[in-house]
Amino acid sequence: MSEPTQVALELDDVQRGALSPRPTPYAATYLVFRVDDRADGRELMRRASAVVTSAVDPVSPLGDTWVSVAVTCYGLAALGVPRGSLDTFAWEFRQGMAARATALGDVGESSPANWEAPLGTSDVHVVLAAVAPDVPRLEEAVDRARPAYDRLAGVTAIWRQDCYALPTETEHFGYRDGVSHPAVEGSGIPGSNQLEVPLKAGEFVLGYRDEIGGIQTPQPEVLGRNGSYAVFRKLHQDVAAFRRYLRDNATDPDDEELLAAKIMGRWRSGAPLALSPQHDDPALGADPHRRNTFLYERDDPAGFITPGGCHIRRANPRDASVAGEVRLHRMIRRGAVYGPPLPEGVLEDDGTDRGLMFAFIGAHLGRQFEFVQSQWMNDGVFFGSGDAKDPVTGSHDGVTGFTIPRRPVRRRLAALPRFVVTRGGEYCFLPSLSALRWLGDLRD
C-alpha cells in the first residue's frame, strides 16, 4: 500500500454526492430518464452542470442538500460519446448490472427478469438524485433541478423512487443506518472510524492515485477526471420473515435482541458489539464519534464478540488480514429507506413494497462493489464459514444457517431464508462538473 500523502482534490469539479455522507434525518428522491434525442440529452447535461452541487465546501449555502447526476453506459452512447472513449471505461460498467447478475448473486427472485421496469434495461440513461434534511427542502432541490429536464421533448422521465428517514432513524429491519463513512484524502470530510487511516483519493475519484499507486481515468481526461462510478440498487426487505426468524430462533425477547445483534454485528441502536458486547448502549449508538471507532483483529480474532460472518464484519472486515487487503475493497455506502414501516409486532407480510435504495461510490467497480458482493457477502471462504452467506443481505436458498462462535459450544441457527430481494439497479458514471459541460458541448 502507498504511504500517506497530501493530495489536492479538485473539489470544485467533483459532485458533492460522490464524497459527502447523507444528512440525518433525510429525504431523497431518484429520477430516471431516457434520452430519445441526442441534442436534448446534451442540453440536459449542460443544464445539469449548473444544478449539480460541488464538493468544494462540505457545508454548502443550501445546507445538507444537494443534487447529483449520473449516466449509464447506454446513456453515454445515447449522448454520442465515441466508442473509443466508451471502451476506456471499466468493463463492468460497460456490461451493466443486469449482465453481471449471476456474479452478484442476483438469481432466482432477484434475477433481472423479475426487476422493476425499466431498471436494468437499455432505457435507463440518466439518474438524477436529490438529497435533503427534510421533504420541504427536498422539494426545493427538485424544483431547482426541474428546469434542467423540463420541456425537453427528447428526454423522458421513466421512473421515480422517493425515500425518507423513518421516525426511528433506522432501516426497516430496525437497525440504525448511515453509521459508517470512510475518510478520503483531500476531501476535508472526516471518516467515522478514527482508527482508519484516510484512503487514497483514487479509490473513490478517478484521475488520482489509488492505494496501489495506479491512476484510473477514462478518456478523454476531461470526461474521466474527477468522476466516480456509482452503483444504484433497489433492495426489497421482507421484514416479516426477518422478525419471524429472530422469534423462532430465540428463547425469549432479550435473546431475540442478542441474535439480532449477532447477525448484524451491532445492536439496533447502532452500538457495536465490539464496544458493547453484553448489552445494548443507546448512548453509544447515537454518538457518531464513538460508535464506529473500533477494530477486530487485536481483541476479537475468533469472532466470539463480533461473529466473523455477521453483516458489518463481512461488509468491512477492518483490520482482519484473513479477508485480504481490506483497503482495496472499501466503498462509500449510502442507504435511503423507501416504503412505510411494517407495524411493530406484525409477523405476516402485508404486501407493501418497502426496503432500501442503496448507493455505492468508488473508482473500481470490480475490486470494490463486485468483490465485496460476490466474495464477502455471498461466500464464506474468507471468514472460515464455507459456503455461508451474509445473514442479512445474502442470496440465501433456505439451506445454510448461521453460526455464532461461543464457548464451550458454538450456537447454530436454522437455515436462513432470503430477507432481501433485488428489485433493480444499474452501474453509473458520476461525471465531474466540467465533464457534464463537455457532454453538453459534444458535436457529431
Question: What is this structure's SSE topology?
Answer:
Blueprint: H1 16-19, E1 27-35, H2 38-51, E2 66-71, H3 73-78, H4 83-86, H5 91-95, H6 101-104, E3 126-132, H7 135-149, E4 155-164, H8 221-224, E5 228-237, H9 239-249, H10 253-264, H11 282-285, H12 311-315, E6 332-338, E7 355-362, H13 366-377, E8 403-404, E9 411-412, E10 420-430, H14 433-440
Antiparallel strand pairs: 1-3, 1-4, 2-3, 5-7, 5-10, 6-7, 8-9
Helix pairs in contact: 2-7, 2-14
Plain-language structure description:
The protein is an alpha+beta fold. It folds into two domains: 11-167 and 204-229 and 425-440, no CATH class; 236-424, no CATH class. It contains 14 helices and ten strands. It has a four-stranded antiparallel beta sheet. A four-stranded antiparallel beta sheet has the order 6-7-5-10. A two-stranded antiparallel sheet has the order 8-9. Strand 8 (403-404) and strand 9 (411-412) form a beta hairpin. The protein starts with 15 loop residues before the first helix and ends with a helix.
